[in-house]
Amino acid sequence: xxxxxxxxxxxxxxxxxxxxxxxxxxxxxxxxxxxxxxxxxxxxxxxxxxxxxxxxxxxxxxxxxxxxxxxxxxxxxxxxxxxxxxxxxxxxxxxxxxxxxxxxxxxxxxxxxxxxxxxxxxxxxxxxxxxxxxxxxxxxxxxxxxxxxxxxxxxxxxxxxxxxxxxxxxxxxxxxxxxxxxxxxxxxxxxxxxxxxxxxxxxxxxxxxxxxxxxxxxxxxxxxxxxxxxxxxxxxxxxxxxxxxxxxxxxxxxxxxxxxxxxxxxxxxxxxxx
Length: 274
Ligand code: NAD
Fold this sequence. Notes:
- By secondary structure, the chain is an alpha/beta fold.
- The protein is built from ten helices and eleven strands.
- β3, α4 (about 80-95) and β4 (about 100) form a beta-alpha-beta unit.
- It is elongated.
């Protein structure tokens, strides 16, 4: 590794997160925007990436050719869609790039393919790249462990902007997983993702999810621990997408030169042992 800045490719460059990443890279020492990639047919192809992100021209033109972009890069920041992310994981592994994945809504099959790619390249994947939410996950795990015996009910509530396409959010699932880890149970067999109609009484030991969508909310999450006569609420509110973008760039810099494996933001932030 040299002292040269880490050359980063932003895929999904015209998206909400893509544009935020381009702005954050521009203000991060040790990182440089190497290429900006969009899907074929996107109106952004050929545009100057800096201008598109509201920074002024930076000479990096948006391309639909990830292969050429990856060959000479050091890392890729990927907030796109599950289908694209699986393809990018294969390409990034071939080019031995650090691949930071923020994309949410991946299926178990998608995750298996991403894990396979991590045998050849350093991948950092997280449903939420912010310091605050990852700390919240640690606190949720501790609370779930501490409140287990007393029979407290756990509910995860989230709200996002109206254009979000997956539910529950990746962050809600991350927090649900933290609660399940605290109780030492499997999340998928203990979660209640939807309630409608005559559902019967709440089953003890389940972890419930509730999803709200509307307006321009960047991401609000609460984990409620409901006991007899009292409720403990742990929550996080994202005011600005740059918290995710700063986390993603930090993850890329952390992963540069690290051995191939699948890492999470807890590893990047040094919170993985809690
Ligand atoms: P968005 O729809 O605004 O942007 C996605 C962009 O990806 C679009 O511009 C789209 O054209 C592009 N894209 C799709 N397929 C592509 C391909 N094959 N090649 C290149 N570009 C392609 O969405 P967004 O709000 O920026 O969110 C993107 C993803 O990131 C979602 O899954 C969202 O849930 C997730 N997200 C994660 C975090 C986190 O911290 N992990 C934070 C915010 C959003």
